[in-house]
Design a protein that fits this description.
The complex is a heterodimer of chains A (697) and B (319). Chain A has 697 residues and is α+β, with helices and mostly antiparallel strands. Chain A has five domains: 2-80 and 678-696, no CATH class; 84-228 and 648-668, Rossmann fold (3-Layer(aba) Sandwich), CATH 3.40.50; 233-321, Immunoglobulin-like (Sandwich); 333-560, 3-Layer(aba) Sandwich (Rossmann fold); 568-640, Sandwich (Immunoglobulin-like), CATH 2.60.40. Helices cover 23% and strands 31% of the residues of chain A. In chain A, helix 1 packs antiparallel against helix 2 (37-73), helix 2 runs antiparallel to helix 12 (677-696) and helix 6 packs across helix 11 (545-556). Chain A starts with a strand and ends with a helix. Mean pLDDT of chain A is 85; it is low at 662-666. Helix content of chain B is 40%, strand content 19%. Chain B has helices at 6-10, 15-27, 59-65, 100-117, 142-158, 166-176, 197-206, 219-223, 245-270, 283-299, and strands at 42-47, 69-73, 80-86, 121-127, 134-139, 183-188, 210-217, 230-234, 240-243, 273-278. By secondary structure, chain B is of the alpha/beta class. In chain B, helix 4 packs across helix 10 (283-299) and helix 7 packs parallel to helix 9 (245-270). The model of chain B is unreliable at 301-319 (pLDDT under 50). Classes of the chains: A alpha+beta (697), B alpha/beta (319). The interface between A and B is medium-sized, with 22 and 34 residues. Strand 2 (30-34) of chain A pairs parallel with strand 8 of chain B, so a sheet runs across the interface.
């Protein structure tokens, strides 16, 4: 400790004043030779301790007051080794780069990293003094930053007070580069960048130094204070319609990552659909690993669209413990039935049974919309309006019909081919090969030549179906509704070595394939080697017929929705199809709306929405030319955090850019002067107060 | 009744003169002045029983009642008075008037004068300084009075010293008076370091001695009138105490009153004739009060067998 005005310490001799008063007081005491001193001492003993304590306290307080006054006047100062950045007061240029990414919302010891940054920044402003030209640059990705340095520290303090964690990851390279630009325009020789950040490795890009040799000095305030900042986050989530669980069925797949920390078992994960938790589960997380969690659920009754969220139990950074999705399933699976053998007698028609199976009772709530055409009408059909096409006993189509069908399948359509008298192996081999999982061979008649009473024993039956396949999922192991059906005529299939995407889902008792599936592009092909009506079998009158047909159609329709398969991230533009609408309004999760109308939308196939600045589901309201406004579920979309920002693993020291002056760039220990006289003066006031209290007692 | 101020008496010539002045001043209002010790008169009849001396049989009673009775007398002899003077350091205290030692010595000198006047024997024991053993054996001659007063005078001149308590001195007196009952008069402030005085007094009384305890206190000791920071120095030790008297006065007075009350109470319980004597009270008034009190006790049948412990605080408390 040293003193700025050491001469004032002479006043400490004032300490002698109470001492002298005390001694003089003793000397001036009247002396009495007293006989009953024992009685006096006994009386004194009772009050002595209290009085003695009071007198000693009073003496000590007065002595301290006498010392404190000259001590305060002497202005004591001390120096300490500071662990914070080196700050010099006076004219200079400085930029405070504050990490306001969503990671700065991390709760550490009861406060967020951003709150720590703001407190540190205010302290820096105090230390820099009013003559410093300062700017605050936010380090979150694409943040708006000031264009010049300023001495308006009060306004800067207001700016600091308004800072909140954004929904974007940090981009320290860009922020430091911006800081260097601001400082480059300053006339001050002393130019310093103060970086206040948890210094996550993901926020720094190697090989992109923000400045060269003549850059500013860099002082770093590591907000994590040495803490590891472990974090868990839902880093990816997808949703797809899952017709196998009903027309409102959805399947949600979430990817959960653990960054640092201890291994954790049974971490709760929940699925929220339309603001209601519909499924919960747990995952075991290991540091540095990712786990996939899959949920099957259905949208609430009467809803075809909903906001969906996958949520983790909250940790120190809760904002990334939730990931948003939006899905809109169509009301119905649109099925195009192509009748290859139409009849005037209703029950003889090729599609009589399949129509009844897809729309039992012809009710509107079956989830299936059927359109029936003949093979000749297929040329005019708009295939994009359908999810599933069934070619029922269709004669081999010409190549020009097959090609659009093949393209439609590869784009995600589901095609089911059933056979019959109209189908010929030769014809199908010539043109229909792109639409078949496997080539056809000739048909066989299992009861050919048999006497009428032997026919029942020679018919074929279904066996060995893939019980785990969605089509057969509703059936039990023996499933009499399928097993009892008899097939007297079926097509055999030609030999094939193409087994990669082809799968026999069911076989007859003679080993021939009954149902074969294959993937084709984004779509699926399904081949049934017998008729869909009762011409070649009696499956249609067995209980297994209806679920097999319905499940097959739903299975084929699974790829009907693939829009926004990838995450839309905060801050990125979203392309919205205009659908020839007159007006579009995008409503953010906080209710704030952005309108596209007039010239912004006219004549455009897409508009670009740039206001996705927070995670959540963005709804879209649209008005057509008639002015009618309605919410368009198919246009709604979910926006999520960039998962890079969830990884707060600290960056290695070498990742930080070199300080322009060559001085220490990290939080280096340096000597700082600490003025003590304020504390001494405060203590003096307390002592005076104490002395008054003691003197009054 | 006008009495002389104790200080004024102290200025009167030699101690014998002062003693005489005091006694004559005290006795001027009394019809009968005598310091009574044990009774010398007939006490009662007791039926004869084997072992009683035959010469004590009251034959007149036998003639009247036809039964043997023995006459019982209180011992009749020359009264022996032992004066026990506290010459310890604490008696040196003088609050503003006479020293307690001067007061007590003068009072005992007056009593000695009175005893010699009534041709009884008087002795003196002074305690306080353990190194000096002052004992004047009891005698009844007039010349002895001068010797005894000379000793008291010498003690007063030498001042109080030492811290010896009265107990040892009283026990020594008890040894001297073991063959005859005696009147033992103790003049002390009873500031006994070992707290044995009251017990010893009661033991003397139990040995059928007539015991008078004169507790001599200075008014300042009973009021603690000092103000301001005061350094109190002990008279019998090196103890010193710096205190604000106002802060401890209440506590001190409570303790002092409790001490006086305890002395009076224990003396009364033990049959000791207790008198609280303040040095501001004229000595002859104190003496008169003592004599009056003892006379009353005698009239009321106390005969020294019990002593009323009535403090003598003021001169007007005469007969």
């Amino acid at each position: 400790m040293s003193f700025l005005a050491p001469l004032m310490l002479v006043g400490a001799l004032g300490l002698l004043v109470p001492l002298i008063i005390h001694l003089i007081g003793r000397r001036r005491a009247k002396v009495v030779r007293f006989a009953a001193l024992d009685f006096l001492m006994a009386s004194k003993r009772k009050t002595a301790r209290r009085l003695q304590l009071r007198e000693r306290l009073l003496f000590a307080v007065r002595a301290l007051v006498c010392v404190a006054i000259p001590l305060a006047l002497a202005k004591p100062v001390t120096s300490c080794r500071a662990t914070g950045p080196s700050v010099e007061r006076g004219p200079q240029a400085a930029v405070l780069v504050i990490d306001d990414s969503f990671g700065a919302g991390y709760q550490l010891d009861g406060t967020t990293l951003l709150a720590r940054a703001v407190a540190a920044a205010r302290h820096l402003l105090d230390q820099l003094g009013p003559e410093a030209e300062v700017a605050v640059v936010r380090a979150s990705e694409a943040a708006d930053n000031p264009g010049e340095l300023t001495r308006e520290h009060l306004r800067m303090r207001d700016t600091l007070g308004d800072l909140q964690p954004t929904a974007r990851p940090a981009d320290l390279n860009r922020a430091l580069a911006r800081a260097a630009q601001l400082l480059a325009g300053s006339s001050h020789a002393r130019r310093t960048v103060y970086l206040l950040s948890p210094l996550a490795a993901t926020a720094l890009r190697a090989g992109e130094p923000p400045w060269g040799e003549g850059g500013p000095r860099l002082e770093v305030v590591d907000l994590r204070g040495g803490a590891a900042l472990p974090n868990r986050a839902v880093v990816r989530a997808t949703v797809e319609a899952d017709p196998s669980t009903g027309s409102r069925g959805i399947a949600v797949t979430a990817e959960i990552a653990a960054y640092g920390g201890e291994p954790a078992d049974d971490v709760a994960v929940s699925l929220r659909v339309a603001d209601r938790v519909v499924a919960t589960g747990t995952v075991d997380l290991r540091p540095g690993q990712r786990q996939v969690k899959r949920f099957l659920a259905t949208l609430p009754p009467g809803k075809r669209a909903a906001a969906i969220a996958v949520e983790l139990e909250a940790d120190a950074l809760p904002v990334d413990d939730r990931r948003w999705l939006h899905t809109a399933v169509r009301d119905e699976i649109r099925v195009l039935l192509v009748n290859g053998d139409p009849r005037t007698t209703r029950h003889d028609d090729e599609l009589f049974y399949v129509e009844a199976a897809l729309r039992p009772g012809d009710r509107a709530d079956t989830g299936t919309a059927i359109t029936t055409i003949t093979a000749d009408e297929l040329a005019e059909a708009e295939l994009d309006q359908f999810d599933v096409v069934v070619l029922a006993n269709v004669a081999a189509l010409p190549a020009e019909r097959v090609e659009p069908l093949d393209r439609w399948v590869r784009n995600g359509g589901g095609l089911m081919v059933t056979l019959g008298n109209r189908a010929t192996a030769e014809g199908y081999r010539d043109t229909m090969r792109p639409l078949l999982p496997q080539e056809l061979a000739d048909p066989i008649d299992a009861t050919w030549g048999a006497a009428p009473d032997e026919r029942a024993g020679r018919v074929l039956r279904l066996t060995k179906w893939e019980a785990d396949h969605p089509i057969f999922a509703p059936f039990s192991q023996d499933a009499p509704g399928l097993r009892d059906a008899s097939f007297h005529r079926v097509f055999l299939l030609g030999p094939t070595t193409d087994t990669a995407d082809r799968k026999v889902l069911a076989r007859y008792t003679n080993g021939a394939a009954a149902l074969v599936e294959a993937a084709r592009g984004d779509g699926r092909l399904l081949l049934f080697t017998s008729t869909i009506d009762r011409d070649w079998n009696d499956l249609a009158i067995h209980t297994g017929y209806l679920p097999v047909v319905q499940q097959a159609v739903r299975h084929l329709a699974r790829k009907q929705q693939r829009r926004h398969a990838d995450d839309l991230l905060v801050g990125r533009g979203v392309a919205l199809p205009t659908l020839d609408l007159a007006r579009l309004e995008v409503r953010a999760p906080d209710g704030k709306g952005t309108v596209f109308e007039g010239e912004r939308i006219a004549g455009r196939a897409f508009v670009r929405f740039l206001g996705a600045d927070r995670p959540g589901v963005y709804r879209v309201l649209a008005a057509d030319d008639s002015g009618a406004t309605a919410e368009r579920d198919e246009l709604a979309f979910a926006v999520n955090l960039d998962p890079r920002g969830s990884d707060l693993t600290p960056a290695p020291p070498e990742a930080l850019p070199a300080s322009g002056t060559g001085e220490g760039r990290g939080e280096g220990a340096n000597t700082r002067r600490v003025e003590l006289w304020h504390a001494v003066a405060a203590g003096l006031l307390l002592l005076l107060l104490l002395e008054s209290l003691l003197a009054l007692r | 009744m006008p009495f002389l101020d104790p200080v004024a008496i102290a200025r009167l010539g030699s101690l014998p003169i002062r003693a005489r002045v005091i006694v004559e001043g005290a006795l001027s209002g009394l019809h009968r002045a005598r310091l009574h010790g044990s009774s010398v008169e007939f006490a009662e009849h007791k039926e004869y029983s084997p072992g009683d001396e035959i010469r004590r049989i009251d034959w007149k009673a036998y003639g009247k009642l036809d039964r043997y009775y023995v006459k019982q007398y209180e011992q009749e002899s020359q009264l022996t008075v032992y004066l026990v003077l506290d010459g310890s350091g604490s008696m040196e205290f003088a609050g503003g008037g006479l020293r307690k030692l001067d007061y007590a010595g003068t009072l005992l000198a007056a009593i000695a004068y009175l005893v010699i006047q009534q041709q009884d024997k008087v002795g003196l024991r002074v305690f306080g300084d353990r190194a000096v053993d002052v004992l004047v054996p009891p005698r009844g001659k007039t010349s002895h009075l001068h010797d005894l007063l000379a000793v008291i005078d010498q003690v007063m001149a030498g001042g109080g010293r030492g811290d010896e308590g009265p107990a040892d001195a009283l026990e020594r007196v008890a040894e001297l008076a073991r063959k005859r009952r005696a009147l033992i008069v103790l003049a002390s402030d009873l500031f006994d370091p070992d707290d044995r005085t009251l017990t010893t007094l009661r033991q003397l009384r139990a040995q059928r001695h007539d015991v008078v305890c004169l507790q001599v206190l200075d008014p300042h000791e009973r009021t603690l009138p000092y103000e301001g920071l005061t350094l109190f120095e002990a008279l019998e030790s090196d103890h010193r105490l710096l205190a604000n008297p106002a802060a401890i006065r209440k506590e001190y007075l409570e303790r002092m009153d409790a001490f006086i009350a305890r002395c009076a109470s224990e003396c009364a319980d033990g049959g000791v004739d207790y008198h609280l004597v303040s040095t501001e009270v004229p000595i002859e008034a104190a003496l008169l009060d003592i004599l009056t009190m003892r006379a009353r006790q005698r009239v009321h049948g106390g005969g020294g067998d019990h002593a009323g412990a009535v403090p003598v605080d003021h001169a007007e408390d005469g007969p």
